[in-house]
Amino acid sequence: MYLYAVKMCSRVARTLLQTGKVFYQSSYYRTTNLLQYSRVSHVRLYSSNNIHKKLTDEEISEDNNEEHNLPTGIAEKYKVFRDEDAEIIFDVDEEKKRITLEELNTEIETVDPYNGLNMNHGVNGVFDIEDLVELLKRDNAKNIFVATVPAELAYVDYLVVVNARSQKHMNALANFVRKAYKLKRHKTDQIPKVEGANSKDWLALDLGNIALHIFSSEARELYDLDTLWAVGPEFDDKTHEVNPREKIYEQYNEFLNDLLPADSR
């Protein structure tokens, strides 16, 4: 009986030892699997004083081939972040310097207002009539009128009349033509003076062979130089209009002529 009890105790003890070994091995494998599943992959860090340095193709290829620790579903759904894909963010001072350098290096586009125009000296004067008309059209002059002046008047070859939208436009037209004249002229050509500079309705430029008149719309209609130079003074109604004051003087002179001296009576 005693031997049977000892054998049973030995068998129970052996069974317990085997069971403990199994528990210990199972726990060891479970812990090992847990550590393998949460293993963090190797991360490459790059440090350089040169912020514009780029990775070589071989280094980029190595990084792309490295295994990441993201599950397959997440890796397929989202893009894996890499250092070389990140945008470089400067601090405030560096950003200001970068913007300033870009502004300095930017080429300023200059527009030539006389581009496409004939800026050579004319044949019969600084301006040929065709060049002046084209210049006035460029600066949006309105209702351009050109008349040939008879040679016997010894005045100019052409008379040009235009009107502007406003007083500011009148001054801009005059200065535009005057500047073009200075660019086209020879040293012997005299720079024209702007006549009527203090007027709100009329400006004029003597360009040598061309007389240019710039009117406001109201003044042009009032003086009507177009009709005067187009049909001549004998057919111009305004030339033959009688001034009311002059008419009174004529009537008064006729009245005086009818009077006789007292001695003659």
Automatic annotation (TrEMBL):
Principal location class: mitochondrion
GO CC terms: mitochondrion
Location(s), subcellular: Mitochondrion
Molecular-function GO terms, alphabetical: ribosomal large subunit binding
Domain of life according to the entry: Eukaryota
Biological process terms in GO annotation: negative regulation of ribosome biogenesis; negative regulation of translation
Keyword annotations from UniProtKB, A to Z: Mitochondrion
InterPro entries listed in its UniProt record: Iojap/RsfS/C7orf30, NT_sf
Family listed: Belongs to the Iojap/RsfS family.
Function statement: Required for normal mitochondrial ribosome function and mitochondrial translation. May play a role in ribosome biogenesis by preventing premature association of the 28S and 39S ribosomal subunits. Interacts with mitochondrial ribosomal protein uL14m (MRPL14), probably blocking formation of intersubunit bridge B8, preventing association of the 28S and 39S ribosomal subunits. Addition to isolated mitochondrial ribosomal subunits partially inhibits translation, probably by interfering with the association of the 28S and 39S ribosomal subunits and the formation of functional ribosomes.
Protein name: Mitochondrial assembly of ribosomal large subunit protein 1
Protein source organism: Cephus cinctus (Wheat stem sawfly)
Name of the encoding gene: LOC107262742
